[in-house]
Amino acid sequence: MSSKLTPDNDLELFFSADLIPDQVKAQLHPDVHLRPLASTDYQRGHLAVLSVLTVVSDPGESNWLAQFHSMRAASKTYYPIVIVSKQTDQIVGVGCVFIERKFLRGLGSVGHIEDIAVDKSQQGKKLGLRIIQTLTGISENSGCYKTILNCSDENIPFYEKCGFQKKENEMAKYAPERTQPSPRL
């Protein structure tokens, strides 16, 4: 199988690929590549994969790109990732964590995981798990004291396997206790 994958260094990435945990990359299915969202990912089917979650209206490429740059300008806030098929250079999985800064918990931060989706043709390869592990790692490495997400009741068992616990109306995973604060990404 020949690879059509566009190398990361040929892309305008949303954030540095160095923030993606190496241990997750090592466990990834060999047919796919995990990286930050790129400015050309509209053309790689970003919205089509998101449509697994809900109805997605197509704003057009120029508006999608404007949103990409607007979100990226909010430095150290949004961390959207994609999983790309090496064979087709098309997106097969997506997810995002955004960092909420708070006044409580010693000016702590909370990571919010959103928009987890895997193309139906790629389900069963643990891509959803790798997306969650990546986003949780980014959240914890940003100094967040917890990472939360909302999900439907039928998805609770999946997120529990990822280390999350049901807390009131959200799923939460608390970062390991630290003796010193982690540097913010």
TrEMBL record:
InterPro entries: Acyl_CoA_acyltransferase, GNAT_dom, GNPNAT1-like
Cellular compartment(s): Endomembrane system; Endoplasmic reticulum membrane
Reaction(s) catalysed by this chain's protein: D-glucosamine 6-phosphate + acetyl-CoA = N-acetyl-D-glucosamine 6-phosphate + CoA + H(+)
Name recorded for this polypeptide: Glucosamine 6-phosphate N-acetyltransferase
PROSITE patterns assigned to the protein according to its UniProt record, in alphabetical order: GNAT
Subunit structure as annotated in this protein's UniProt entry: Homodimer.
Involved pathway(s): Nucleotide-sugar biosynthesis; UDP-N-acetyl-alpha-D-glucosamine biosynthesis; N-acetyl-alpha-D-glucosamine 1-phosphate from alpha-D-glucosamine 6-phosphate (route I): step 1/2
Signal sequence range: none
E.C. number: 2.3.1.4
Keywords: Acyltransferase, Endoplasmic reticulum, Membrane, Transferase
Pfam families: Acetyltransf_1 (PF00583)
Membrane topology: Peripheral membrane protein
Residue span, N-acetyltransferase domain: 32-185
The keyword tRNA-binding belongs to this UniProt entry's keyword annotation: no
Family in the record: Belongs to the acetyltransferase family. GNA1 subfamily.
GO cellular component: endoplasmic reticulum membrane
Keyword Disulfide bond in annotation: no
